[in-house]
What does this fold into?
Amino acid sequence: MNSAYNFPNDESEINRLDLTHSMQVKAIGYELYLAPLKPEIQRILDCGTGTGIWAIEMADFFPNAERKVPPNVKFEIDDLEDTWVGNQPYDFIFSRYMAASLTDWPKYVRNIYDNVKPSGWAEFQDYNFMLDCDDGTLEGTEVWRWNDLMMDTCKMLNREAAPGPKLEDWVRATGFRNVRRQDFKVPLGPWAKDPHLRDVGMCNLVQTLDGLEGFTMKLFCGVRGWKPEEVLVFLAGVRKELKAGNIHGYLNYYVVYGQKPEGQEE
It folds into this structure.
């Protein structure tokens, strides 16, 4: 990403991102991706790669992909919202967990479309960061207030924190064909009856607690003008509610993939 990135980037955040990767893989059925890729593809791009764990794991599945990082993986720093220059087109471009990081999603999707080979695929996995709840246990809580303030702060920064529900429309409007969408629930805490969702929810609770102070402090102090001690007092109540396990909130997670038509210019 670029210098406008508004979240932590330290060692504890690296550990949290690796846990979040595991959670997202579990959430969609223990898969790294859902697009129907052929095993012989060679060029794969992971946008906003974070710690690089997805790209490194993908290298094991696609040994033909261009060459301790496996020799067929390389990392580049660039601004995903600028026009991409100097890149050869890719067989597969993957974008995940970019919510609250971008200002112009249609342009971003267009950049991806323009850099996919004809008949190549792109896949987007992302959230609506506004917590949902089916039984009223979220309403009026400190967790709800924190979530609402986070969404509002992202809006103040012109960062889209709920791209997930809009992904399919953006992908179709850009020109992708054979577009498919799948929606998944990511509980916040191990409250679900289903063992799989309970496991995903536990991962989500841990990564949320691990990152809570870091990204809240940076946004609330840097954007909303809160004092650090105000943030700490507020988050004490949020943590208490999260650990109590009485709130049955969840995030909606969306996977959308599509194929660039044959005959389209790269």
